[in-house]
């Protein structure tokens, strides 16, 4: 069974993270499959909208730490970098459905989505500093722009989590629905029924002001992230994380 499920409902493509036994933690291979799914959809005229969802109770626990330590993403050509580039440059509407935990990249990827629908169970966190790392996916630019500097700084510095209601109040989430997947599919079908070139052009206009700035920040984040990964501070934080996980 593939760890990224790809289904098509008329003009809507769904990419579903399918590793529920590991809380949908992402491996290098899963990043590669997500990137390919997005890039293939970008070039397929029959696809008008893409939905990113998940199987099981959680969106994603973020990076699979073991795989992450064995295959650290140190540059933009890594599978993680290719996925983040696919997100940044995806020309069509991108919708995310979030339930349960959305950790690290599980939250930062949402900053690139056009509409996010959350379940009441959704719980967001970006614990980069707790692991001796720095924010990624352009989040050091996009998140403070969305929520204000001090609020972003507090969340990044402490690694604190926040729920669906706070995420909606911040503007990270468009709506909260008991059946978040059904709500997201309804929105996706509405978008898919619109004139496609008008939608693509409108998204390009909406993203134009910040696209190059986000791309530049993502490059800087990767450089600092790579340096941090090789630091004693990060290695100690990772080992502590694994030890805590093993003791549960």
TrEMBL record:
<dbReference type="InterPro" id="IPR029045">
    <property type="entry name" value="ClpP/crotonase-like_dom_sf"/>
</dbReference>
<keyword id="KW-0576">Peroxisome</keyword>
<keyword id="KW-0413">Isomerase</keyword>
<protein>
    <submittedName>
        <fullName>Unannotated protein</fullName>
    </submittedName>
</protein>
<dbReference type="Pfam" id="PF00378">
    <property type="entry name" value="ECH_1"/>
</dbReference>
<dbReference type="GO" id="GO:0004165">
    <property type="term" value="F:delta(3)-delta(2)-enoyl-CoA isomerase activity"/>
</dbReference>
<dbReference type="InterPro" id="IPR051053">
    <property type="entry name" value="ECH/Chromodomain_protein"/>
</dbReference>
<dbReference type="GO" id="GO:0005777">
    <property type="term" value="C:peroxisome"/>
</dbReference>
<dbReference type="InterPro" id="IPR001753">
    <property type="entry name" value="Enoyl-CoA_hydra/iso"/>
</dbReference>
